[in-house]
Structure formats: C-alpha cells, structure tokens
Amino acid sequence: MRKGKDSNPLHDAHQSGALRSITVNLNGVSRSGACEPRELLSDFIRHELGATGTHVGCEHGVCGACTVHVDGVACRSCLLLAVQADGRRIDTVEGLSIGNTLSDLQAAFQRHHALQCGFCTAGILMSCADYLQRVTNPSEEQVREMLSGHICRCTGYTPIVKAVLDVAARRRDNENAMEASHA
Ligand code: FES
Ligand code: FES
Predict the structure, then answer these.
(1) Is 70 in the pocket of ligand 2 (CB under 6 A)?
(2) Where is the 2Fe-2S ferredoxin-type domain positioned along the sequence (predicted)?
(3) What pLDDT does 47 receive?
(4) Can you tell me the mean pLDDT for 39-61?
(5) How far apart are CA 168 and CA 81, in angstroms?
(6) Distance (Å, rounded) from C-alpha 143 to C-alpha 132?
(7) Which of 33, 17, 13 is nearest to 85 (CA)?
(8) Residue 24, H or E segment
(9) Assigned CATH class of 104-177
C-alpha cells in the first residue's frame, strides 16, 4: 500500500509488527517501550526511554562511552540489541547518585578533576562502579588496564586513575573502621 505523505514510519512499523514492546528495569523503575528488532540498546535507552546520560561515540564497541550495567555487569550498550535487554535490569549513570547526592565515585571524579568535556565520563563511571565492586584493592597498573577499554580525549587518564584509587582506599578505610567498631 502506498504511504501518504503524513505517514509516520514508526507507527507504520508498529502496525506491521516490526516494532517489539520490551520492558526493562531502568535504575530501579520498570519502563516499557517499543523498539525495532535491530535497534541498539544504547539508542533505546536514549531515544525511547529518554535516559540521555548514556553517551554514544563509536557505536562499535571501541570507545566505551555507552557503558551501562546489565543485571549488574558493565556492558557496552552499543553492542547489545534492545530486545536482548527485555526483562533485565539496566543501570545507567543517572542511577549512580542518590537524589542530589553524588556517589562516592562521582564525588572523587569531582575532587580529582577527572573530567573535562565529560563525553566519556558516564561510561567510565559505570565501568569503574562495576570494577570497584569486584576489586577492592587495585594497583595503579590494574586501574589503568581496566580503563584501557575507554577512550578519553581530554584528561590524560591520570586524574581518573587517582579518583578510582582514592575511592578504593576510602572504602577500605570505612570497611576497616566498621569492623573495628564491631570488634
Ligand atoms: S559507543 Fe559503544 S563502545 Fe563506543
Ligand atoms: S573528559 Fe572529554 S573525552 Fe574524557
């Protein structure tokens, strides 16, 4: 059937069954939306769910800007299809802070001037958040290796490394203090 000039491609796709409805838990809130079967998770998060804190750079898994957590694990959202995320938990940079209070990781980035233009920052924060859950006492070399999956054109990486090491040290100090107070 010939489409009229007022035809809406998304509406037509939905009518023809080309769009899928999926539901994800985005930062603790159940969100549903429509996506094409080939649509990238990064595009779904940004355009359908409006969570534009996740940035998109290379769109082929190199720059790390699009990193989010899928079921608690850092993933490049440009390498996943939105339909693959159906029913899963997605955490983005918008979920790191609690209200207006920055997470300890975000606060450390601020303290150490670990961002300039900020384009890479959301992805790096999400990778670091995942990494610090698993590695509590990383060396500088290990942090640099972890960051090698991210491209930052501004900072030279050193302030980011310092911020990550600072958070790890403070968390260990807090943990030790809590253990001492319960001894
Ligand atoms: S946009 Fe996904 S890795 Fe670059
Ligand atoms: S702060 Fe600009 S690319 Fe990293």
Answers:
(1) no
(2) 20-96
(3) 97
(4) 98
(5) 33
(6) 10
(7) 33
(8) strand 20-26
(9) mainly alpha
Which of 63, 116, 124, 158 is the best mutation target for the ligand 2 pocket, counting ligand atoms within 8 Å of the beta carbon and taking the most? Answer: 116
Residue extents of the structural domains in the chain = 18-93, 104-177
Q: What is the pTM of this model?
A: 0.90
Q: Are strands 29-35 and 20-26 parallel, antiparallel or unpaired?
A: antiparallel
Helix spans in 97-139 (H)? 104-111, 121-134
* Longest CA pairwise span in the chain (Å): 77
Q: In sequence order, what are the residues at sequence separation of 6 or more whose Cβ sits closer than 8 angstroms to the Cβ of residue 106?
A: 96, 97, 125
**H or E element at residue 41:** helix 41-43
Query: How many other β-carbons are positioned within 10 Å of the β-carbon of residue 116?
Result: 14
